[in-house]
Design a protein that fits this description.
With 86 residues, the protein is mostly helical. It is 78% helix and 0% strand. The protein has one domain (17-82). The longest helix has 20 residues, at 43-62.
Length: 86
């Protein structure tokens, strides 16, 4: 049986990325992995994923936590560099 950690590792996600997707999409961790994997397959899904990450960034920035904001920006930058959005 696969564990959640197995799924997260398979998708190449960090715990921070899973948290960001969970918050932005309003899903649990396993569903976040499914969404991330789907983003690997289509530009449309990648753009939706980027929206989820931006929603999480807005949440973090509203809490005025510059360090966390920087970390989320790094997650978004990594995502944009590794996924096709067009």
């Amino acid at each position: 049986m696969l564990s959640l950690k197995d799924c997260v590792d398979y998708c190449g996600l960090s715990d921070d990325a899973v948290s960001a997707i969970q918050y932005g999409a309003g899903v649990n961790a396993l569903e976040a992995c499914v969404l991330a994997q789907d983003a690997e397959q289509s530009a449309r899904s990648s753009r939706r994923m980027l929206q989820y990450l931006q929603t999480y960034l807005e949440h973090v920035e509203s809490q005025e936590n510059p360090q966390r904001s920087h970390e989320v920006h790094q997650i978004i930058d990594h995502f944009v560099m590794n996924h096709r959005l067009i």
